[in-house]
Design goal:
Catalyzes the attachment of serine to tRNA(Ser). Is also able to aminoacylate tRNA(Sec) with serine, to form the misacylated tRNA L-seryl-tRNA(Sec), which will be further converted into selenocysteinyl-tRNA(Sec). It is found in: Cytoplasm. The protein is 41% helix and 21% strand. It is an alpha+beta fold. It has two domains: 4-100, Orthogonal Bundle (Helix Hairpins), CATH 1.10.287.40; 115-420, BirA Bifunctional Protein, domain 2, CATH 3.30.930. The chain binds one RNA strand of 95 nucleotides through α3 and α4.
Length: 428
RNA sequence: GGAGGCGUCGCCUAGUCUGGUCUAUGGCGCCCGCCUGCUAAGCGGGUUUGGGGUUUAGAGCCCCAUCGAGGGUUCAAAUCCCUCCGCCUCCGCCA
């Protein structure tokens, strides 16, 4: 949620932001009107409530008939107080409903427009020229099957479409990637975390995942809990309703967890292999910092993501995501997209968002300052996931015989092997 | 799964049975001041959070809410009732 005081002070700024997102700027006026009604109703309620309280004191002191007379007199007032309170509450609810539909105010400089209006900030590395090398690259599923690493057929048998097994070097690759991601995150000063993957509705809503993308989320009806699609949710909830101490610098966490996504509305998209799946593993970085430090922390998260991709020796590019593709809580987002040879394009591998105070306001995470408390800023970024980096590694580092080169940085996490070789998959 | 107990403004705590004088008691810690070669002690004051109003703004002042959360009863709720959350104890079950 954005700061209503900011909206009151400069509604045009919020309208502009909404327009950049391709969303309704009229919500700003709905908020302003409901806010005005709320404040008027609140003043009335508070006045009569004060009157009622004062009256209560005389009632307490009165005795006998005098008391009965006072009681009869104050009944009307009590009813009015109740009604005024309800009116104020209704206006507040209306205001909040409109507020919740307004996305974070986008950072100045973010490209205007939708999904395709991103700006490429940099391209790193050069995609291999397989034609020049004299062979046709295999796709990740074919390679994965040759290596005995990926089994989507049995995944579908057991759990349905978009589920898979990672076996042998496939499973080892996932562990190695998470190991590398955690090692780098810890080297960068992040506290390693194992976090809940089932959270309460308040946490899910607070992190901003029940607004536009509510149908992306798995819900356990019987327990009223949600399966998280990223540990960002649990890390955002970690300090909910707390006053955190940022005097020694930002709080930085890195959690590795399984992520669950319904992928509703993506029917027919990326159906082959393990590019778009319902379940994967991810190491997520999360930062709590002072609002004025957020841009710098965002750059830092991007630098770390690049450090990870550099370590995997992948060709990739960095894009500045356009306003319309940000998602509600983000004020700015950078995606790192790796080159996928058999698709002939760059695809998102990691992503980092600056949510400024949007998430923390709803989750009520504050810091103490000389003049009171204030809402902190939160940022998040992918260190690594399991599935897409496996795809990128297999495809980019494949050799003509189906073996796969292992980047040096990953070898310590794979028992020192420098090459993955085709095997007969177990049970095939 | 069953039974019971508990949750008070940083920490501890009084108040809840018997609703009003609670503007929530006291202690510890912390902050400011006084006293004082220095320190300690002592003395005085302050110390939840959010919102609204007043104000150019801040300070100050006034008001409302806040006793785990939400609802209810009542002229009036920390106090009575209901639901939920959390913690603890015992029993059962599983390891």
């Amino acid at each position: 949620m954005i700061d209503i005081r900011e909206l009151r002070a400069d509604p045009d700024r919020v309208r502009t932001s909404q327009q950049a997102r391709g969303e309704d700027p009229g919500l700003v006026d709905q908020v302003l009107s409901a806010d005005e009604r709320h404040r008027a109703a609140l003043a009335q309620f508070e006045t009569s409530r004060a009157e009622q309280k004062a009256f209560g004191k005389t009632v307490a002191q009165a005795q006998g008939e005098e008391k009965q007379a006072l009681l009869a007199q104050v009944k009307d007032l009590a009813a009015r107080v109740k009604q005024l309170e309800a009116e104020a509450g209704a206006a507040a609810e209306e205001r909040d409903a409109a507020m919740r539909r307004i996305g974070n105010i986008v950072v100045e400089g973010v490209p205007v427009g939708g999904e395709d209006d991103y700006v490429v900030l940099e391209e790193v590395g050069v995609p291999r020229d397989f034609a020049a090398e004299g062979f046709e690259p295999k796709d990740h599923l074919e390679l994965g099957e040759l290596l005995g690493a990926i089994d989507t057929v049995r995944g579908a048998k057991v759990s349905g479409a978009r589920f898979y097994y990672l076996l042998g070097v496939g499973a080892q690759l996932e562990f190695a990637l998470m190991g590398l991601a955690q090692a780098i995150a810890q080297d960068e000063g992040f506290v390693p975390v194992v976090a809940p993957t089932l959270v309460r509705p308040e946490t899910m809503a607070g992190a901003g995942f029940l607004d536009a993308h509510a149908d992306e989320v798995y819900r356990l009806e019987a327990d009223d809990l949600y399966l998280t699609g990223t540990s960002e949710v649990a890390l955002a909830g970690l300090h909910a309703d707390e006053i955190v101490d940022l005097s020694a610098g930002p709080l930085r966490y890195a959690a590795t967890s399984t992520c669950y996504r319904r992928e509703a509305g993506s029917y027919g998209k990326d159906t082959r292999g393990i590019f778009r799946v319902h379940q994967f593993t991810k190491t997520e970085m999360f930062v709590y910092c002072r609002p004025e430090d957020a841009p710098e922390e965002h750059e830092n998260l991007l630098r770390i993501e690049r450090r990870v991709l550099d370590a995997l020796e992948l060709p990739y590019r960095v894009i500045d995501v356009a306003a319309g593709d940000l998602g509600g809580p983000a004020a700015r987002k950078f995606d790192c997209e790796a080159w996928i040879p058999t698709q002939g394009k760059y695809r998102e591998l990691t992503s980092t968002s600056n949510c400024t105070t949007f998430q923390a306001r709803r989750l009520n995470t504050r810091e103490r300052t000389e003049s009171g408390t204030r809402i902190v800023a939160t940022l998040n970024g992918t260190a690594l996931t399991s599935t897409r980096p496996i795809i990128a590694l297999l495809e980019n580092h494949q050799q003509q015989d189906g073996s796969v080169y292992v980047p040096e940085a990953l070898r310590p996490f794979l028992g020192g092997v420098d090459e993955l070789r085709p095997v007969v998959p177990p049970g095939a």
